[in-house]
Amino acid sequence: MLLNVLGSAAGGGFPQWNCNYRLSRAVRGGEEGFRPRTQSSLAACANGRDWVLFNASPDIRSQIAATPELQPPQEGALRATPIRAVVLTNADVDHIAGLLSLRERERFVIYATQRVLEVLEQNTIFNVLDPQYVDRRPLPLEGVIPIADSDGRPTGIMVETFSVPGKIALFLEDVDRADDGFGTEDGDTVGLRIFEPDAASSAFYIPGCAAVDGSLKTRLTGAACLFFDGTVFTDDEMLDAGVGPKTGKRMGHLQISGPQGSMALLADVPVGRRVYVHINNTNPILDERSPEHRAVRANGWEVGHDGMEIRL
Ligand code: MLT
Ligand code: MN
Prior knowledge:
312 residues; alpha/beta; seven-stranded mixed β-sheet; binds D-malate; binds manganese (II) ion
């Protein structure tokens, strides 16, 4: 199976359009040690032909333009795509807005939990994806499902879904329920195990996760590859940067550093490769010369970047 990190940044991308923080300025200015990054998405292919996207970022058009495997085949029909399905991990705008760019009467399938499917249903702009062409299929909250194309043909990719601590999408927050996770429910955020039917190795894709507990650690043990929430290095990093009032926790993201951070909590979990994705534009690991970048590398983590390919 081939995995391709289409977009390694969190919502906003890197640089973010309106951001003048030192990191966005540095990458915008082409400084050494900085790479531009598009918003959060992963692609996978098991049979050399059929591709499955995990999340559809607002940058999907440029991501497809940068990835020949996702483009219409040279000898293909007048309208064609190797993208057979899009699997959603939540309803955050950086994970669903790209669906709107996949209109034009092309057949593919959207897989999401019932909660996320309801968001698409309630926001009628998603009807630009004509249901005659684009099937919406439910992901189980806990369970394994083969990802099939719109004719029901298997893509050779299976996913196992599991609920992870997270937060309802920002645009759906119920401010009257601030003490109750702003109305967050099970199924608002899931993690995914991605695997082939007869293969021993699995990849995990968890771009949003608010906490790591024993059951998650057990689940991840022995994985060939883990793509994990690398939104913030420190919980109050956005406040420190002066760009906003929200902590990582408030956004449903676990910080990387410190004794209660993902780096420490996952340190004793044996995993083949561990890669931070969904990296916010305030995260100092984006500067390859920073001590924070060196710290995650020294702890066995890779800093995900656009176009990063991993073959299992
Ligand atoms: C998040 O990951 O917290 C969201 O994508 C934030 C947003 O809606 O931009
Ligand atoms: Mn996000």
